[in-house]
Specification:
single chain; mainly alpha
Amino acid sequence: MTTNNYYILIINKVIIFLKYIFHISVLILIIISLYPGSLIGYLFYGDLSKQPDLIENPFGTSINHFFCYFVISLLGFFVYLKNENFKKIVYSLFFLSVILESFHFILPFRSFQAWDLLANILGVIVAYSLVKIYLLFNKP
């Protein structure tokens, strides 16, 4: 095996590993979003009713939504960048950002927050924009 083939093999294995991380992250996001109470609040404070702030800010916990969707979207967009499923990932993450927050209308101990919905959508849009900017400078 040549050195170039070895590097391609390693890169492909890393991409496969990152795809697993992406899909596990989406699953965790779904569980955290649909659980009636704050699992992260329980993990940090032992209280299902307390929402942790990642960063002290005037926006409250909506910034948490932005960061989560931004990081997960960015990971998904980059690992599926050269894949025929790229558009499906974009649409799926956008749809997921809307539908998970919309479920808060009907879930017990959850409440729909327009700022959270906006933060979810912005996280996906900003990640997508960064990928598009990257593609402008680095044609695949």
